[in-house]
Amino acid sequence: MPNSSKTPLRPLTASDSPIRKLGVMAKVATEGKVKTRLGNTIGFDKSAQIHQRFLDHLFKVFQHWGDERHWVVSPIESISQTAPQASSHWQIIDQGGGNLGDRMRRWFANHAFSHPALPRTHAILIGADCPLLSPAEMDQTDRLFRDCDLVLGPATDGGYYLIGLSVPADSPNENNPPNRATHPSRTILNTLWNDIPWSTDEVFDRTVAAAEAIGLRIGRLPLRSDVDTEEDLTALLHQIEHPVDNTDVSSDHIELARDIRRILSQPMI
Prior knowledge:
Shape: globular
Strand order of the largest sheet: 3-2-1-4-6-5-7
């Protein structure tokens, strides 16, 4: 499989200029509805606050990345209850119904394959469980698209924290050379999000196998851990507060860790 360290990347040309779209797929921070595994040990009020803090952080960090930024939200009717909400840099998009695969497929169908006459669309979807993702990872994904059709960020639990597609027009032209994958959109959408055992440790491997079966070229990002449990949250705080090799820590990350500590110090309700 192509990756950033082994596959030489060709220079982009003017005709390759993509439309870059980023979606953050995350629920409204409602107590008892988000981060329930974390809430089972620290309290559901605190886990909802931490979920909201992760969202606020991601909205800020990515507010200028790409051409379009979407909060792909559920349930959309509850969004007025959240504060603060995404800024004017973000569009609010309804996830809709169905399982996780249905909801991801819907976003890609509506926002990656919707304008086939335009230059290539680079559509990237992430969740809110990896708050230390940065524009550098999105830039790396964008570079991998020069020679890949699909980019995945593998998670330690067997899922993925990022999935991105480089989508061409429906037929070869100057923006879509014939050596690029040109599968019908229905084939790609059904292959990547049908018959995947969601919420299991098979998600990543099954997705890779399905993509390879239709000839998609796959790029991988580094392995990352989601924050789903108290142990994961402790590891996240340690990563920020005790960086290895004297790595510089951004002020945004320091503020994030401080706010998490503040939330955790609140009395249990």
